[in-house]
């Protein structure tokens, strides 16, 4: 008899085998932009355009995102071998702001192995890590690198942005295009610092 825990372990192991590095993910997105395509099962014009926009966003954050000296010390002091397995798609706006920041943090500590999988190609994994019943991405699953045991999760947004979204939904019932633009402006102003704080809190 297969236990639930073993089933999750099997799903995680299969997903890790199907994963790529962040550098490989960036190469994939760049290639898709050239081909006017996108990851995922929906190849609509809107999602193709979002992929193009997100490539530009990620390129900017890859170049400009900074980790403070105080946070750098906390990250460098972490001494357990972990894997950050992130579920994403190239069209996801939140992912474009968050994934480069995850990379900046992971690069500061050799104990952190950053791997990426695509949501629509890893449904079994996504179904294990829903947010309020939805397949929200990006979703970071923090694993013990030796056992693949799940230690924690992060996403689909940093805590501050999550609170903004929840407050707006309570007041308006749904996220409007205007709010989504406000959220993008918040990401640009925050410069990844809220994401860094949340990621560092995972390392405690």
Structure notes:
The chain has 204 residues and is of the alpha+beta class. The chain has a single domain (4-202), classed as Glutaredoxin (3-Layer(aba) Sandwich), CATH 3.40.30. Helices cover 55% and strands 13% of the residues. The chain contains nine helices and five strands, in the order H-E-H-H-H-E-H-E-H-E-E-H-H-H. It has helices spanning 4-17, 22-34, 45-64, 69-76, 93-106, 123-128, 159-172, 177-190, 193-202, and strands spanning 20-21, 82-88, 112-118, 139-144, 150-154. A five-stranded mixed sheet has the order 1-3-2-4-5. The termini are far apart. The mean pLDDT is 95. Keywords: Isomerase. One of its GO terms (molecular function) is isomerase activity. This is Thiol-disulfide isomerase or thioredoxin.
Topology:
Elements (H helix, E strand, L loop, with lengths): L3 H14 L2 E2 H13 L10 H20 L4 H8 L5 E7 L4 H14 L5 E7 L4 H6 L10 E6 L5 E5 L4 H14 L4 H14 L2 H10 L2
Parallel strand pairs: 2-3
Antiparallel strand pairs: 1-3, 2-4, 4-5
Strand content: 5-15%
> In the residues, how many domains can be counted?
1
How many helices does DSSP assign? 9
Mean pLDDT score: 95
Low-confidence stretches: none
Mind telling me the C-alpha Rg? 17 Å
Structural class: alpha+beta
CATH homologous superfamily designation:
Glutaredoxin
* Secondary structure: number of strands: 5
Main beta sheet: 5 strands, mixed
Pfam families: Thioredoxin_9 (PF14595)
Protein name: Thiol-disulfide isomerase or thioredoxin
Organism: Winogradskyella thalassocola
GO molecular function, one term: isomerase activity
């Amino acid at each position: 008899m297969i236990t639930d825990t073993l089933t999750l372990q099997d799903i995680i192991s299969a997903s890790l085998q199907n994963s790529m590095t962040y550098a490989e993910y960036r190469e994939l997105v760049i290639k898709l932009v050239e081909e006017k395509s996108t990851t995922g099962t929906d190849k609509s014009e809107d999602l193709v355009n979002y992929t193009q926009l997100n490539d530009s966003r990620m390129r900017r954050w890859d170049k400009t995102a900074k980790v403070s000296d105080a946070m750098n010390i906390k990250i460098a002091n972490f001494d357990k071998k972990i894997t950050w397995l992130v579920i994403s798609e190239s069209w996801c706006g939140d992912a474009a702001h968050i994934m480069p920041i995850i990379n900046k943090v992971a690069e500061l500590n050799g104990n952190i192995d950053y791997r990426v999988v695509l949501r629509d190609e890893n449904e079994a994994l996504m179904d294990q890590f829903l947010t309020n019943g939805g397949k929200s991405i990006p979703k970071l699953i923090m694993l013990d690198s030796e056992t693949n045991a799940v230690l924690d999760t992060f996403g689909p947004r940093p805590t501050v942005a999550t609170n903004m979204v929840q407050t707006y939904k309570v007041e308006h019932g749904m996220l409007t295009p205007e709010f989504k633009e406000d959220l993008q402006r918040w990401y640009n102003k925050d410069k990844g610092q809220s994401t860094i704080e949340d990621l560092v809190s995972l390392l405690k």
